[in-house]
Amino acid sequence: MAPHANEVPAAGTIPKKIQAVANATIADDNVWQWIHDVTASSPIQPPVNLGTGFIDHNPPAFLIEAHKTALDSVDNNQYAPVPGSDLLRETIADMYSPLYGRQLDPITEVCVTNGAQEGLLSSVLSFVQAGDEVILLEPVFAMYVYQIKVAGGVIRYVPLRPPQESMTSTVSGNDWTIDLAELEQAITSKTKMIYLNNPHNPLGKVFTVAELTAIGNLCISHGLVLLSDEVYERIVFPQDSGSQPDTPTTHIRVASLSPEIASHTITAVSLGKLFNATGWRAGFVIGCEALMRPVISTHLVLAYSSSGPAQEACAIGLREAERQRWWAVNAADVGARIRRLCRALDTTGLTYVAPASAWFVFVNIDAIKLPENYPYPPIVINEGTRDWKVCYWLVQEFGIASIPGSCFYGPENKRLGERYLRFGACKSDEGLELAAQRLLQLHQHVSKAV
User: Fold this and answer.
1) Which InterPro entries match (predicted)?
2) What are 67-99's pLDDT values in tens digits?
3) 3-state secondary structure the chain
4) Which of 42, 248, 313, 319 has the smallest C-beta neighbourhood within 10 Å, fewest atoms?
5) CATH match for 61-324 among 1.10.287.110, 3.30.43.10, 3.40.50.300, 3.40.640.10
């Protein structure tokens, strides 16, 4: 029977020519939406959401006040210039020129974007097209994968390797290393870009000068773009006196290592993450003029411009944060929250990757004993790895949300990640206390010997 004139046809009857293109489904069934939905429907309420990087406390008061003041300006409430407001770009150039060891041109070498995410996507779309290869270092943030697939690129994965003692003991994220020979072997005639994340999510690894120099020199010798996501650049924790002598105590900007490396590098920074204001969607990218010209053009097409009031506030906030030495205060605060979560994991009996930076802890789940014949939904069964089962079970039985470790790996190395879950410490004191209580309940399900 033909449908009535006013009836909407079922999805299966929509003409093929107006069905979504393949790229529109790249992020279908993504873990971020899944964990949100599962957590919201958990029988244990309120849940403790340690899965996403949602910060549940406010940015500094001086930043909020600057934003309120910015709203009174007519100019700030209209379109900002495409590459960013003059004030913010000049502030970025002034503050970052000493950090890069060269004078940045605020007009040609800085572009303000809608968070680092859009800056990274603009960079990928500017240099990667169908058939181009991009190297990702595992574990890897899934958004990088989506960006490359949207551009039509081909991903080659190179895993960071954990130390042997990580099988049974807590180790540092800095102990995970890159096999530079393996990295170079992954480069082919089709390789266009190496995508770096430093400091690293989810390991919290801060790459050393030697590692970064080697990666940068590979980009020079093979003619590659080095896209460096450095959104946690100001959140490196103070190291204890027992740290190894070569343990980085500050973030090293890869573009600062040499003029040659800088000429191949695009760096992305998140003002939202730096100021605990991720909802503002404020970020920027820095690079030499030849690299930035196409990025600015792509940014225009994707977003046109970014929030005027947020740009004004961030320009003031960057100066004020420097004046108040707020970066060190914030890094110490984040480090204290990480240590608090790690103490709860110690009490529970779980080992983990102790981060030197960022908000996350990669937790080893080998010792967790799952009940037999537990009912899992189809998506968990289809994924086929143990981390998804543990993740779902923790939400349903303890109200603890996390992200399965295998989500940070490509198909070939997926099994390397299934021994882990990613927990986030970006919670209030009350949230971390509740997390500690929930984790303590898990203790009876943790084996003493792995």
Assistant:
1) Aminotransferase_I/II_large, Kynurenine-oxoglutarate_AT, NHTrfase_class1_PyrdxlP-BS, PyrdxlP-dep_Trfase, PyrdxlP-dep_Trfase_major, PyrdxlP-dep_Trfase_small
2) 999 999 999 999 999 999 999 999 999 999 999
3) CCCCCCCCCCHHHCCHHHCCCHHHHCCCCCHHHHHHHHHHCCCCCCCEECCCCCCCCCCCHHHHHHHHHHCCCCHHHCCCCCCCCHHHHHHHHHHHHHHHCCCCCCCCCEEEECHHHHHHHHHHHHHCCCCCEEEEEECCCHHHHHHHHHHCCEEEEEECECCHHHHCCCEEHHHCECCHHHHHHCCCCCEEEEEEECCCCCCCCCCCHHHHHHHHHHHHHHCCEEEEECCCCCCECCCCCCCCCCCCCCCCCHHHCCHHHHCCEEEEEEHHHHCCCHHHCCEEEEECHHHHHHHHHHHHHHCCCCCHHHHHHHHHHHHHHHHCCHHHHHHHHHHHHHHHHHHHHHHHCCCEEECCECCEEEEECCCECCCCCCCCCHHHHHHCCHHHHHHHHHHHHHCEECEEHHHHCCCCCHHHHCCEEEEECCCCHHHHHHHHHHHHHHHHHECCCC
4) 319
5) 3.40.640.10
